Q: What sequence folds into this?
């Protein structure tokens, strides 16, 4: 790693990562803005850097090299029209399925659209002809950003070859100085960065199709430290049978490896608890205890699918920096924390089948997790049972106790999904959770729930007032609905999620511009659409209304709550 200045450090992390992944040849076109990349590639051991004057010729030369070797070749140019000359070869790489990694240097954002020289719009320059495009962040001297760069390059390398070979385009803005002029602040960073640890997982998988055969999966799992956890992230299934197969596969992984399973509220695992005695669902609460969080810090993480909702879990992983293996069949980068991560492009069922059947003996680390889980739920269950006041956070726990088996449950974003994460107690009701966690928006919540309920068994939607109001036109679907939807409405007259954020301390403008309370009479609104409405006064009333669901129509069970009282209760429950 070259610590002379910010740009040399940034470029050296990029090139070192690529060489460890298997890059052997780079074709470099001359230019000023690309100087940091050219310098890094020219001095990188184990790499042949070939200078070529003409960008169009360079691109086809790189294409020929990649065809000959079957491995990705890096192609580098400066800013401006230089990258445009790569376009014909990029198109050919797309159509011929040839792996190319295109690195275009660029001006930083403040020099765009202001008549700065040699500057054009390079965003998505090659359109749909690349497998993946990413605008890399402007270099900064932070270890977390260097980790982001490393993981981005790993994903880019993989996407040149999977799921099919083709070109990947990284656009890299650089500020001056472009030459390797020393910067003392960057030199000082050398002392705080453990280079061996930083690159530890890079190159484990070189990205080629041959590097992932089923025989390798057992090898990959054998390298995970014994002091590790499984994180079962967000997973949604169209049927209870599919969800059960998923849960059984994770249970086999857990038993074979002897790891606790931290199960997200939107994972089906919490609803098939009997299958896995190593289940931990109270991690968000447990990790708020700083001493316990330190005691339970893992060396390794095996994550199944997407990252859980819990901010507390994410912060803990960022602090502890474990090695991570992410199991997912797709081609996405599922690592928003930029940990030292390897993506295992396998299904959890395939992975579980590659392991030996005999279970691993429980470790002290596993036992500590399970004891903490038991203690936490004993306290939390008692607290929730004795809570008579309408604290909205209790709603998710009540639903976990009384919904009919296999009920499809649609969960709105914002606070609703967090209450499920925090208070959904594990059981064996086979509830089917659904949530629009792709973009995490509140738009379309009601319409999505009606789509899940249509032609299905009676379904339930857990939502706040703003998410419901955002999509009230969904009620126009009522005459078309074949089936039933019960809407459990937490009406706290505003955006309750913001009460738990720092902005809540700033009034004005908090109430008007963030909480955005709406004075809507939901009984009258429901009457307008011909929707049944019931005002819920007690938890027992809510439980009784949910134990047996109607077979057709739509009804709203409205629970009126005080969001500020709820925020105070949550703060007392989880002191920081």
A:
């Amino acid at each position: 790693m070259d610590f002379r200045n910010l740009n040399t450090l940034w470029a050296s992390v990029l090139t070192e990562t690529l060489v460890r992944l298997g890059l052997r040849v780079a074709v470099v076109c001359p230019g000023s803005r690309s100087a940091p990349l050219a310098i890094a590639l020219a001095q990188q051991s184990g790499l042949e850097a070939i200078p070529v004057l003409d960008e169009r010729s360079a691109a086809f030369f790189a294409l020929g090299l990649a065809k000959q070797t079957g491995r990705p070749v890096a192609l580098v140019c400066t800013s401006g029209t230089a990258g445009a000359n790569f376009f014909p070869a990029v198109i050919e790489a797309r159509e011929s399925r040839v792996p190319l990694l295109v690195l275009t240097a660029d001006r930083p954002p403040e020099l765009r659209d202001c008549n700065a020289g040699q500057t054009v719009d390079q965003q998505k320059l090659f359109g749909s002809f690349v497998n993946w495009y990413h605008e890399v962040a402007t270099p900064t001297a932070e270890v977390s950003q260097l980790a982001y760069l490393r993981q981005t390059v790993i994903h880019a390398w993989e996407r040149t070859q999977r799921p099919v070979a083709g070109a990947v385009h990284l656009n890299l803005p650089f500020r001056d100085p472009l030459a390797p002029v020393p910067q003392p602040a960057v030199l000082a960073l050398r002392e705080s960065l453990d280079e061996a640890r930083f690159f530890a997982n890079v190159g484990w998988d070189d990205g080629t199709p041959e590097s992932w055969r089923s025989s390798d999966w057992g090898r990959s799992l054998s390298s995970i430290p014994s002091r590790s956890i499984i994180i079962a992230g967000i997973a949604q299934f169209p049927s209870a049978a599919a969800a059960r197969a998923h849960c059984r596969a994770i249970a086999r992984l857990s038993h074979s490896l002897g790891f606790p399973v931290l199960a997200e509220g939107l994972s089906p695992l919490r609803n098939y608890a009997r299958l896995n005695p190593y289940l931990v669902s109270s991690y968000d609460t447990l990790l708020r205890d700083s001493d316990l969080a330190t005691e339970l810090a893992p060396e390794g993480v095996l994550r199944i699918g997407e990252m859980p909702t819990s901010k507390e879990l994410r912060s803990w992983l960022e602090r502890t920096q474990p090695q991570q293996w992410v199991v997912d069949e797709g081609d996405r980068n599922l690592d928003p924390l930029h940990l030292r991560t390897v993506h295992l492009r396998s299904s959890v069922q395939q992975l579980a089948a590659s392991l030996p059947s005999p279970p691993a003996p429980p470790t002290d680390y596993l036992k500590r997790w399970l004891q903490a889980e038991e203690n936490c739920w004993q306290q939390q269950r008692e607290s929730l049972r004795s809570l008579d006041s309408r604290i909205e956070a209790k709603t998710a726990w009540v639903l976990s106790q009384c919904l009919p088996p296999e009920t499809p449950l649609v969960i709105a974003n914002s606070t609703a999904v967090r209450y499920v994460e925090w208070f959904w107690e594990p059981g064996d009701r086979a509830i089917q959770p659904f949530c629009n966690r792709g973009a995490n928006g509140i738009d379309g919540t009601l319409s999505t729930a009606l789509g899940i309920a249509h032609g299905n068994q009676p379904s339930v939607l857990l939502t706040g007032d703003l998410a419901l109001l955002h999509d009230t036109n969904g009620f126009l679907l009522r005459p078309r609905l074949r089936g039933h939807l019960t809407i459990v409405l937490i009406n706290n007259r505003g955006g309750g999620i913001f009460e738990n954020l720092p902005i809540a301390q700033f009034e004005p403008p908090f109430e008007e511009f963030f909480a955005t309370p709406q004075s809507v009479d939901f009984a009258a609104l429901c009457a307008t659409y011909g929707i049944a409405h019931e005002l819920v006064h007690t938890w027992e009333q809510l439980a009784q209304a949910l134990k047996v669901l109607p077979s057709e129509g739509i009804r709203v069970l409205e629970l009126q709550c005080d969001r500020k009282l709820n925020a105070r209760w949550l703060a007392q429950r989880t002191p920081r």
Notes: The chain has 22 helices and 18 strands. The longest helix spans residues 364-385.
